[in-house]
Amino acid sequence: MGKIKSVTCKALTLYSGVFVLLLVCSTWRGYAFPGQYSAAKETIDKQEQPYFHKGDPIYADIDTANRRVYVLLKEGLWCYELGSKQWALLAHYDSYPESMFNLEFGFDPFKNRLLLWSRGVGTMYEINMEDYNLERIDRSFPHKNQFGHFPFFHDGELHAFGGYGFWENKEIITFFNSSIKEWNIVTASKSSDFPYERQPFTGTYLSDKEEFYFFGGSLFKGGRPDDKNVIRTAKNDIWRFSFRTATWEKVDDLDGKSWKYYRAASSGRFGRVNSISGSFYSDETGNWYLPVELEDSPSGIYFLMPYNIKQQAEYKPLEIPLGDSREFIISNYLFDDKNNRVVLVGLDHLTNTRTLPVRIVTLAEDSLLTNLITDSEENITFVIGSLFAVGGIFFIAILILKSRPWEQLKKENNHVDKDKLLRQDWLNGTERKLIEVLWNEGTFLETSELEEMVWSEIENYDYRRKLRNETIKSINEKFSMEFSAEGKLILRKTDSEDQRRFRYGLNEKVIGKQLFDKNI
Predict the structure, then answer these.
(1) Euclidean distance between CA atoms 361 and 331, whole angstroms
(2) Closest of 147, 206, 155, 148 to residue 176, by C-alpha
(3) % of residues, the chain, pLDDT over 90
(4) How would residue 273 be classed by pLDDT, with cut points 50, 70 and 90?
(5) Which residues contact 176 (CB under 8 A, 6 or more apart)?
(6) Which pTM value belongs to this model?
(7) Are 332 and 277 in contact (CB under 8 A)?
């Protein structure tokens, strides 16, 4: 009897433990993890801006509709208003439901909410936008299958491409299915090409075309990636996935000889940076800006490698013009679509301290466009430079003997003469037509207006934009080269009513004609 009693007690203890475990698990399904508002919040509230502790994660994303930047630190969630340039502490968290290093972060523009999810995909948490409490919203589990994935939002759902898990890289796209609160796989067409399995460097999503792009990544062949003997390679290719056709297509192979993709976390200052803030895309120009590191580049100088998705053109890396903000350490790269401004999240560079103030710097995309040079343009520049070096005297003699000096185009008032300008044989028919349209209209025209007047026979919008950009660039380059004139012949201005739009018109200083105001 003593043995039976002992076994019974053990069984009861075991069943009780299982019951408690099941109760905890069932409770966890709808577990709400609230922000722990303690006395420490009063101290943080007195800060005018957030402070970063060296080695911690720093996550950021942007709500472009409301022009807000959200920054998540270990201490809590902050918001930065791009209009007023003011910081506000939204919530202080004493802890997270999982280690912050194991979580990804992003703003869902479709449902106007902030999300946290497992780096390996699986568990999902929503930050309530009213009280900023954390609430688990999935019926899944930590998949641990896509560490290093790139996240993006499509059709109102969070998607994740690639990543590593269970000793292999992936080439799949998964998505969180809100209706069943679990993850599913996006099915690609069987006839489609497929990229190599990888952990991508970065990516971007074009909502108007329903296309996802990713750049490069870390690959390995054979064995486990944590094996030091495994063969590792880094790709610099670009792939596109079309949700409309469910197909993959390789877009380009980037040069990558003088640069490599730059991860802010590799600097050693940041424990982690969320993947969604690793690059940014401008729909106005079609440029996708990739942070890169140049060989032997000095510390404190940051570079971007622009890639034009619409024209499939690779540009040379350009220095980010930080100006007086040179002592600024960049952690996250975002873009304000409404105002075509680059939004950089980072830290003030201070020595002998582990706690650094978080700061946001914004730059007009125009400040980057002035320095764009393609590989082909660089080669042309090199050839021209060589010609100057070899035949400089001969070239100067030709310039002296040119029959169309700048003075021949001028009137008595020192401004260019329209009729003489349009008769110049270095202008082609399209260039003459564009100049004549701008001269006759006497104002700055919006891009679609100008394109309709000059290229009305062309229906393809992207091709029109390409022709407009190339024609204006060609006119300005020829004008400057032929006559060494001051400034450009055609200028671009921001529309005063909509900062996302641009208008084009002639340079009043050159043509001597005052243009009337038309919403500029």
Answers:
(1) 11
(2) 155
(3) 50
(4) very high
(5) 117, 124, 138, 157, 158, 159, 182, 183
(6) 0.67
(7) yes
